[in-house]
């Protein structure tokens, strides 16, 4: 331990005279640490040399060395390797007891400062441009640094969590319990920064960060990451660290700073997605503004991430809390404006979020009384149908069609206000194939089935147009080259829609189908017609 201190406390930078820590110095340090390990449990007087320096002084020197100008990655890695060995083999009494050489030392503060310094060593470079994105070449050194820092901090956490190690009988060692509050949030933010698949991570750094997070959970006697965030059984003895994590992130989630660190938004989103009912309500003030801020960005990726966060908030916060301070109204207008975009990935998250938000703002259409006045449900469906009718991009058509059924189901009987435009959209979408999987046609058939079940009294006047469209679809399917399983699913759904139309019109469809010339159509169409005509009401 003494050799370790001498190595780090040289007044001149050790690398001014050599390019690396010599094997002799390292072997001497490790040998001294092993000797200190063998003396654990003895009185401090038996190894005064080992404990002659306070641990805070050693940690401070490590921080200074890591900040030295001109330090290479290899040199800093060698220093951190020594620190890792210090935590692994060093005397636990010397490391964690606030007495003897560490008397009058606030070890909690010292370790927090040290861990903060290590995380800054592996931090991402800040982005000063408005795009909020740096080239991948800017992150070349980050994965290796993250791996080294993870190893050092992992050794510290494992040693702190090993409360069964013997210490001097007259001294009480600081345990992980006392360091949970200040250290766990820092370690969680660091681990989450480097465990997600991003340009600044590698497979090795992601594995190291995941192991670190698992070790933090285990050392704190938690069973899951959720318990780490919320606390164990919601007791004061083991409180969660969610509030502390959000406090750390707040300074980097303001309007003028949230784009500077590319990792912050991803860490925030990951944390938010872990928080459900009833805990999220307590943190609504901290999570709603950043989520809305990200969704309001001009970059599509940020918008998508922000809307996903907002959708999670809508699903996990009571309606009364969402409506307080007009939050729900503000959110509705922000999402509604996104419907004018032509980005498929954004529409794919905006539509379900709006569908989940509408029940918060409006009463169930089936329970609003008479007369039923148009409301936000009508606004959303009207704009959606307008875009669907004019859209020519197959990807966007598929996204719109996917959520149309859910919107119709939410609206219920008031869908009759929009049947004319809805009919045009359904017929138009059934005419065009969007690829081998036929996702658009399948989704539109689902929407048609839902419409027939809800608005059946108004279907008789639309019988002719819908039947022609469905029969044309069956004819097209007999000639188009699509997978047999997909063709069978389309035929089944189209047949079901025809059966529903027959029920809606009290058997009128059967009479019309009897006049079909069997010589002018395919076998599959004839089979469908036979199914309908033979069906019992």
From TrEMBL:
One of its GO terms (cellular component) is cytosol. SUPFAM superfamilies: ARM repeat. Belongs to the TTI2 family. This is TELO2 interacting protein 2. PANTHER family: TELO2-INTERACTING PROTEIN 2. It comes from the Eukaryota. The lineage of its organism: Eukaryota, Metazoa, Chordata, Craniata, Vertebrata. It holds the Pfam family Tti2.
């Amino acid at each position: 331990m003494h050799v370790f201190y001498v190595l780090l406390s040289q007044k001149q930078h050790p690398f001014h005279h050599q390019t690396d820590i010599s094997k002799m110095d390292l072997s001497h340090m490790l040998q001294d640490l092993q000797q200190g390990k063998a003396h654990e449990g003895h009185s401090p007087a038996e190894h005064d040399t080992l404990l002659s320096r306070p641990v805070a002084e050693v940690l401070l020197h490590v921080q200074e060395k890591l900040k030295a100008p001109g330090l290479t990655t290899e040199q800093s890695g060698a220093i951190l390797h020594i620190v890792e060995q210090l935590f692994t083999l060093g005397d636990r009494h010397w490391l964690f007891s606030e007495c003897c050489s560490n008397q009058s030392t606030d070890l909690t503060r010292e370790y927090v400062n040290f861990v903060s310094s290590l995380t800054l060593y592996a931090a991402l470079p800040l982005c000063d441009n408005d795009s909020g994105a740096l080239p991948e070449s800017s992150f070349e050194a980050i994965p290796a640094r993250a791996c080294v820092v993870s190893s050092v901090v992992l050794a510290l956490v494992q040693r702190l969590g090993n409360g069964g190690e013997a210490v001097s009988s007259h001294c009480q060692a600081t345990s992980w319990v006392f360091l949970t509050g200040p250290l766990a949030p820092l370690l969680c933010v660091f681990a989450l920064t480097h465990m997600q698949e991003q340009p600044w991570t590698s497979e090795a750094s992601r594995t190291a960060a995941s192991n670190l997070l698992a070790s933090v959970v285990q050392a704190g006697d938690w069973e899951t990451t959720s318990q780490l965030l919320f606390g164990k059984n919601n007791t004061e003895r083991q409180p969660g660290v969610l509030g502390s994590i959000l406090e750390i992130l707040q300074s980097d989630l303001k309007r003028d700073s949230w784009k500077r660190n590319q990792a912050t938004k991803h860490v925030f989103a990951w944390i938010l997605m872990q928080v459900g009912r009833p805990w999220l309500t307590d943190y609504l003030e901290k999570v709603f503004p950043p989520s809305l801020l990200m969704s309001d960005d001009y970059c599509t990726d940020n918008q998508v991430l922000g809307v996903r966060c907002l959708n999670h908030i809508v699903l996990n916060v009571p309606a009364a809390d969402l409506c307080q301070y007009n939050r729900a109204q503000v959110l509705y207008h922000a999402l509604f404006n996104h419907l004018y975009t032509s980005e498929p990935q954004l529409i794919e998250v905006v539509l379900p979020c709006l569908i989940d938000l509408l029940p918060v703002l409006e009463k169930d259409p089936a329970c609003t009384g008479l007369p039923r006045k148009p409301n936000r449900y009508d606004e959303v469906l009207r704009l959606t149908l307008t875009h669907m009718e004019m859209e020519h991009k197959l990807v966007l058509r598929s996204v719109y069609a996917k959520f149309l059924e859910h919107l119709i189901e939410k609206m219920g009987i008031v869908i009759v206000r929009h049947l004319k435009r809805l009919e045009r959209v359904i017929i138009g979408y059934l005419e065009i194939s969007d690829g081998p999987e036929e996702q658009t046609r399948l989704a539109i058939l689902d929407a048609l089935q839902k419409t027939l079940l809800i608005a059946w009294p108004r279907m008789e006047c639309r019988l002719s147009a819908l039947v022609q469209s469905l029969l044309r679809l069956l004819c097209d399917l007999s000639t188009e080259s699509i997978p047999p399983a997909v063709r069978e699913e389309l035929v089944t759904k189209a047949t079901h829609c025809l059966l529903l139309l027959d029920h809606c019109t009290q058997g009128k469809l059967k009479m019309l189908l009897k006049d079909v010339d069997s010589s002018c159509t395919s076998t599959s169409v004839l089979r469908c017609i036979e199914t309908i005509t033979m069906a019992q009401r």
